[in-house]
Amino acid sequence: MQDSRGLTLTAESSDAVGAYEGAISSFLNYDSVAGSLVKSTVADYPELAMATILRGYMTLMIESSAVQGKVQQIAEHLLANPDRLNKREQNHAKALQQWAMGNPAGAALVWDQVLAATPHDLLALKMHHYTTFWRGRPAALRSTVESVLPFWDETTPGYDHVLGMHAFALNETGRYEEAESIGRAAVEQNPEDLWSVHSVAHALEMRGDITGGVDWFRERLDTWGSKNPFRGHLWWHAILFPYAAGNYEEVLRLYDTGLAPLSTDFFLDIQNRASILARLELANIEVGDRWDELAEFAIGRTGDHVLAFTDLHCCLALASTGHSQELARFVDSMTAHRASLQTNGYDAAGYEVAVTLARGIELWVSGDGATAVDQLWALRDELLPIGGSHAQQSLFGQLITRIISEFDGQRAASLLASGYSAFPSHAATIDSFLAVLESIEPMNRTQRALIESTKSSREILNQLETTYFSAQIE
Ligand SMILES: [Fe+2]
Asked: Is the domain covering 1-126 a CATH 3.30.70 domain?
C-alpha cells in the first residue's frame, strides 16, 4: 500500500495506513497524544512495521540509556524477519538499531540512504534532523534538508514541516533573514508544528530582535496545552528576549510560571531550566533554591549518558549547588562513557569536547582556576560538537568568558575584543565586557573608545527595557 506521499508501506488495509499517517502527523505536530496514537496503531496493526519503528524512534527521544536496550531488541526482531519489510523499512529498522546502540551517526548514514532513494520520506528527514542537531552538525543539517527540497512543493503533504526544518537549518548556518521568512511561511501553512514556530524564534534571537521576539510569543505562549513537553523549550526562547534586554524580574517571573512547574525527568526541561538559571547567575542575579531540583536530577543521572548537551547542564546544576564531589563523580562517569564510545567505534569526537568542557568546569569549581583557564581557552572555538543550537551553546561561550575573566583579565580582554560571546547580544554579555574593559590598566585610546561604544549599546537596551517592557506590563 502507499501513503499520502507515495511511499510504499507494508500494511494490510487502508485503515492501517490511515492510523499510521495520523500518528506521524501528530508526532510532527508535537501533540501530546502522539505517543498513545502510535501505541494503539502498533497494537491494532502488528504487521505495520513503520508504526513499530516510529514508536522506537519516539522512545529513543527520551534520551536515556534506560530505554536503549529494549528498542535495540525491537529493531533486531524486525531485522530478523527481513522478508516482512520492504527495502526502505529494512533501512529504518537498521537506523533504529544503530541509534539504540548509541550510534546516532551510524543511524544518520542509513537515513541518508533512505532519503537518497525516497526524498519524500518525512520521518527519515525528521529523525536525521533531530539527531544531527544534537550532534552539533549544522552544515549537515542544512545540506540534508536541501538535498530533498527540490523534490518537494506545496502539493506534497507535509511540505510545511520540510520548510520548518529548512528554516532552522538556515538559521544554524547563519542565514537569519531567509530563516525567518521561510519559518514564518511554514507557520502560516501549519501553526501546529512547534518546530517551525521555534525556527522563527531562533532567527529573532540571533538577530537580536527583542521586540520581534516578544511579539512572536505574546499570543502563542498560552496556546500549547495539547502539545508535548517541547513546548517548554519555546518558553525558554520566550524568556531569552527579556533576558537580552536585562529585564531579570520578567525572566524570573516567566521562569517560575512557565519552566519551574515542568517535569524534571525530561532532558530538555533540565537543559532549559539550567540554561536560564546559569544565565541569571552570569548576570549576577540570585536565583535562590531554584537549582536544587536540577542538582537532584543530575545526581540521579550519573552513569546515564546519551546527549552531551544534557550532561553539561547537569554539570552546571552540580557546580552551582556546591556538589563538588558529585560533580567529580559525574565527570568521571562522562569520561567512562566517552571511552565506551571509542571502544565501540562510535563517533566520540563531540562527546570528547563535552568531557573537556565538563573537566574545565570541575577544575574551576574546585579552585584550580589557572588549569581551568588553559583548558577552556583551548576549547573556546570548538564548542559546536557538544550539540544544540548556537543560541543554546552561547551560554557556554559566556561561561568560558566569565571563568577566564576571573583568572586572566588580559586573555579575557583579548577574547572579548574579538567579539567572542558577544553574539547574540545580551545585556549580561555587554555588562561582562564592560567590567573586563574597565579593569584594564593602563588603558589606551582604543580601549577607551570601545568602552564608550559599548556603553551606548547598553544604553539602547536600557531604554528598551524601561519603555517596551514597562508598556507590556501596563
Ligand atoms: Fe531552540
From this structure: no
